[in-house]
Amino acid sequence: MEINMELTDKHIVLGVTGGVAAYKAATLLRRLIGAGGEVQVVMTAAATRFVTPVTFQALSGKPVFVDMWDDRIVDNMAHIELSRRADAILVAPATADFLAKTAQGQADDLLSTLALARNCPLLVAPAMNRQMWENPATRRNVELLRRDGVICLGPDAGAQACGEEGDGRMREPEALLESIIDFFAPKLLAGKKLLLTAGPTFEAIDPVRGITNLSSGHMGYAVARAARQAGAEVTLISGPVALSAPQDVTRVSVQSALEMHAEVMRRVTDADIFVAVAAVADYRVERISPQKLKKATGGLPEIHFVENPDILAEVAALPNPPFCVGFAAESEHLETYARQKRARKNIPLIVGNLIQEAFGGADNRVILFDDAGSHPLLVASKNQIARQLIEHIASLMEKK
Ligand code: CTP
Question: Could you tell me which residues are beta bridge partners of residue 15?
């Protein structure tokens, strides 16, 4: 069975209006299609002065519409025909003029007519010069649009094409894609607070040396992202990784298991769900040398280890624990070890995977173990595995 991509079966009208940021709409279009979306591009006449329709046509593999009177559409009812199948209209970039027209319900070209005649949500990504954005007329128009239920994504602050600095830059295509995916994702964990650990821990020996586990953090970050998409408020306690925090997730960076433990315990009473994805070092060096250790002249150095706290087991043993989920990365006997770990840590759900398959591969094979038995997930990317896991957590929590 094939697993859906995040925008599979979603029909999106991408409206492009006449601003310098129109060139970024080409990247956005690629990202939307890359996530499985069906995208129909509609441009204003002014937008075609910045980027030609041919670009969008080539990228979307579909004709691009600009004109109300385009006779490629039967009955000349483009405004009805193009929005009929749409699940959302996304206008990026949205100029001050487009916002003004839409706020007033004016419809003097194809895109503004589509916006007025729609029966689906409208999302806009404003892009304009800082002064245009700050103008009271624009502020009023944006407020009116918000009141009418239009979703306003951005703008961001930063350097502008006109040479100024400030609010008004179009939000970057990757961030807009995240917002669209969030918008469509079922809110299975709405109102829930989810705390999660990810990445490795690093246990220092001296100022320049230490021991650690192999963990990229990708799985944990994917779970954090999927939980946020499902509407949860997510706090991610992360060991050292080379990843940027997922959008709208609070990240707390730590190094050692003791730091991770402290940050988790500080926040856990607030959490409804705790997911321990981190590859926590089981042991730490008893005494970290404040100075760099020198190579011993006679014999090998001796390093004494002490045990680190088991964060997951400790959280699960709290008097009123959150719903706890563990991970078991094993090199053999996956089923036996994962079941034993679940029982030993006294948690309702554990995610098992074989490490030979976990490292490097794009496709991940994981099995969930809970009270009802084992549930193999569909082989998929880490993001898709994370989504399936969140669905399973939500269904178990519903039954509680
Ligand atoms: N875990 C934790 N704190 C630790 C060790 C592990 O929170 N000090 C969590 C991990 O995040 C994971 C689960 O416990 O969700 C399983 O961790 P693992 O290290 O594989 O289990 P261990 O009990 O340490 O067993 P072993 O190392 O023998 O496989």
Answer: 42, 91
